[in-house]
Amino acid sequence: MPKATWNGKVIAEAKSEETEKVEGNVYFPLSALKKEFFKEAKNTTVCSWKGTANYFDIEVGGKTNTGAAWTYKEPKPAAAKIKNFVAFWKGVKVES
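The structure assignment produced for this chain is given below.
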């Protein structure tokens, strides 16, 4: 079962068939997030084929990992399968 951990806590967990893998990143459905650890960030980036990414800060144990998770709320058609899925970076450990 894929899970994402940071600062000693599981912050997302889902069954393999509920996740998507794109460009080496495991995308978790929003329902898999432990929402108490996530805060919407204001920053965005644009991918030429996926669209605009919106970011989350992750807060665990009094520490903040700024912009360590991202989602595509309105992806371009080529990336439709990851709409409202979340992926991680910046030291978040993802195990499949």
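Interim note for the steering committee: The chain has a mean pLDDT of 97. The two ends are 6 Å apart (CA to CA).
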